[in-house]
C-alpha cells in the first residue's frame, strides 16, 4: 500500500505550535494549493489543506514559517473522526508532513532569530530538515508518535 502526498502552496496563516501532554511538539497550519486547471470564467480554484507536523520539524516550522510563505510538503493523508460540542460526529482529513521545504525567503532575507539558512547562501531552498545552525536533523520512522 502507498499513502504519499506532495503539495506546493502558501500558508494561509501562521503555524500554531502546541505540545501534547507528554511534551511532544505538534504544529498545524493551512496550505493554499492552486488547482491545475481554470474554470469557464478563467479562474483557478484553490484547495485549503490542513497540515500537521510533529517533534523537531514542528518546532522548526513554527519558528521559521509565517503566513504567505511558499513551501513544499511531503507526507501522508490521515483521516480522523471527532465529536463536536453538540454531539455530532465529524470526519477530517489532514496531511501529516514528514518533510517541509522552504521555497522562498522571508522579506528581510533572514530566518527568525537572525539565523541564515544553509550557511548564509542567498537564494535557493532551505529544508526544514536543518536546525537553526544549519545542522542536518535526522527524523526517522522511530521518531513519529504514531
TrEMBL record:
CDD domains for the chain: SSB_OBF (cd04496)
Cellular component aspect of the GO annotation: nucleoid
UniProt-recorded Gene Ontology molecular function terms: single-stranded DNA binding
Motif (Important for interaction with partner proteins): 141-146
UniProt protein name: Single-stranded DNA-binding protein
Biological role stated in the UniProt entry: Plays an important role in DNA replication, recombination and repair. Binds to ssDNA and to an array of partner proteins to recruit them to their sites of action during DNA metabolism.
Organism of derivation: Neomoorella humiferrea
SUPFAM superfamilies xrefs: Nucleic acid-binding proteins
InterPro entries to which the protein is assigned, alphabetical: NA-bd_OB-fold, Primosome_PriB/ssb, ssDNA-bd
PANTHER family assigned to the protein according to its UniProt record, in alphabetical order: SINGLE-STRANDED DNA-BINDING PROTEIN
Gene Ontology terms describing biological process: DNA recombination; DNA repair; DNA replication
Origin superkingdom: Bacteria
Matches recorded under NCBIfam families: ssb (TIGR00621)
Keywords on record: DNA damage, DNA recombination, DNA repair, DNA replication, DNA-binding
Subunit-structure text: Homotetramer.
One Pfam short name: SSB
